[in-house]
Design goal:
By secondary structure, the protein is an alpha+beta fold. The chain has helices at residues 140-147, 164-167, 190-198, 237-248, 258-261; strands spanning 27-31, 38-42, 54-58, 60-62, 66-70, 76-84, 92-101, 110-112, 117-125, 128-134, 175-178, 202-209, 232-234, 253-255.
């Protein structure tokens, strides 16, 4: 398939730049396989739209991993931390990161952040670098939690603010490791979950840490030539058993979003 066959125009004014005040007030397009046409609803209406099902959600948590720093020369450097390469948190940690600067990053380049110091140890191609990060006390990961910015998707054309630390996390977020939120879950609220459970629905969780490839466009002319990025995931025995049980009982399994589907 030609990638161009999938092109379509999306006017910028139709791309929301901030979430609604109420997560579950978002619009919901309903397609009923047994009836013609579509219906406009609100996400809060979800409990009344489906028979009792098993919802599978992603419990990954977004690390505020976008760091803005400077080289000793004063040049600006941006690092998006992707994956910790060292085994444990500590005052020194090695990370895989996407680096961006006006003149490129060389091995041995020092980078200074507000609470963290870094040295580029290895260039790995395609914008990736291995970087050694250090702090005087505590752990690098804890310092990044305080200093880092939320890595908003590229279609959100504004600077991140303090509210994004809450609004760009799902209510299911437990396991830190993503560079982007599993966005389909952002619409769930405690009241929607409670209403779903009261209506006979059940929930189970898996973990898929969303990688930086989610921000990267498909550049190949043929879709088949695109190389997909890798992502880390964990499906527990509890989750697998819940899915198997729902299938045996004839209930639908609702994968909430593309990360759970993957």
């Amino acid at each position: 398939m030609d990638t161009a066959d999938l092109d379509f125009e999306l006017p910028e004014e139709l791309v929301a730049q901030a979430p609604l005040a109420e997560r579950d007030a978002s619009r919901l397009l309903v397609v009923d396989a047994h009836r013609p046409g579509v219906t406009d609803a609100r996400f809060v209406d979800l409990p009344s739209l489906l028979p009792p099902s098993l919802f599978v959600v992603n419990d990954t948590r977004v690390l505020p991993a976008r760091l803005q720093g400077k080289k000793p020369s004063g040049g600006a450097v941006e690092l998006l931390l992707v994956e910790r390469l060292s085994e444990a948190e500590g005052t020194t940690e090695r990370w895989l990161a996407l680096g961006r600067t006006s003149k490129g990053l060389r091995e041995g380049t020092e980078v200074l952040f507000e609470r963290v110091r870094g040295v580029i140890e290895e260039k790995q191609g395609d914008g990736y670098v291995a970087v050694r990060l250090e702090v005087d006390e505590g752990s690098v990961t804890a310092a990044v939690e305080r200093e880092g910015e939320m890595p908003l998707p590229p279609y959100v054309r504004r600077a991140p603010d303090a509210s994004d630390r809450v609004r760009y996390q799902t209510i299911f977020a437990r396991e830190t490791g993503s560079v982007a939120a599993p966005t389909a879950s952002l619409h769930f609220t405690p009241r929607v979950v409670a209403a779903l459970e009261a209506a006979g629905h059940a929930f189970t969780e898996l973990t898929l840490h969303v990688g930086p490839g989610t921000f990267r466009p498909v550049k190949t002319e043929r879709l088949e030539d695109h190389v997909m990025h890798e992502e880390r995931f964990d499906v527990s025995e509890t989750c697998a058993a819940a899915i198997d049980r729902a299938r045996r009982e004839g209930r639908s399994v609702v994968a909430v979003g593309t990360t759970v589907t993957r």
